[in-house]
Amino acid sequence: MSGSKVYIADGKASFYSDKMQGRPTASGERYDKTQLTAAHASLPFNTRVLVTNTRNGKSVVVKVNDRMSRSRHTIIDVSRAAALQLDLVREGVGTVRVKELKDSDLPQQEAPLAVSEAEATTKE
Fold first, then answer.
1. Tens of pLDDT along 105-116?
2. What is the pLDDT of residues 17-65, one digit of tens each?
3. Could you give the C-alpha distances from 26 to 40, 56, 69, 100, in angstroms and in order?
């Protein structure tokens, strides 16, 4: 996935079984069901993607840190935390849209409190 082309796909998503908790992913990270991560067949590790449940409109941004085999049934496998936000846990699978996010698409982190401001508020 290079250049200006953005990966977008529609298909089914599933989520990791709890028995995968703590096991190594293909990237070397350990699977943590409380983190917003996913497995994808071809996107590079650390790619951030927006996953949207097309049934209810709920979305979540996940980081690709694992591989899955190319499947005719699913296009992404999300962590339990992501599945909860998407409302996929009960059904186990759902129809989603997956869109790759470039750095400019990611929400900006709030600026941390400046040291001088922190000192001013604690000395009053």
1. 666 545 455 554
2. 888 899 999 999 999 999 999 999 999 999 999 999 999 999 999 999 9
3. 10, 31, 12, 19
Give the chain's end-to-end CA distance (angstroms, integer).
Answer: 53
Structure tokens at 43: 């996107």
Tracing tokens 């599933």 back to the chain, one arrives at 14
Tell me the pTM: 0.79
Burial string for 40-58 (b: 16+ CB within 10 Å, else e) reads beebeeebbbbbbbeeeeb
**Amino acid residing at 46:** N
Structure tokens at 57: 């409109």
Q: What single-letter amino acid sits at 120? A: A
Strands (E), 1-124: 8-15, 37-40, 48-53, 59-67, 76-78, 93-101
